[in-house]
Design brief:
This protein is mainly β and about 70 residues long. The protein is about 0% helix and about 45% strand.
């Protein structure tokens, strides 16, 4: 089951996903994003280690950030 979070502002459920992105220099980075529905490719079961979920106060959208 994909990790989900409910927005406090809009009460909408968002699901955590990730994907690998290749940069121009050839380096690969992992991008994390929240989507309104579960996609079969890239859905994550838990928040990555060292990261935490926060919510943008203005828009109500969830975001990931490094733990402080």
């Amino acid at each position: 089951m994909a990790f989900s979070v409910v927005s406090k502002k809009s009460k909408k459920t968002y699901f955590l996903h990730s994907r690998l992105q290749k940069l121009k220099g050839g380096q690969e980075v992992t991008l994390y994003y929240f989507a309104g529905e579960v996609k079969p490719e890239g859905s994550l079961d838990a928040v990555p280690a060292g990261m935490e979920v926060i919510e943008n106060e203005r828009t109500g959208l969830p975001m990931l950030r490094k733990k402080k």
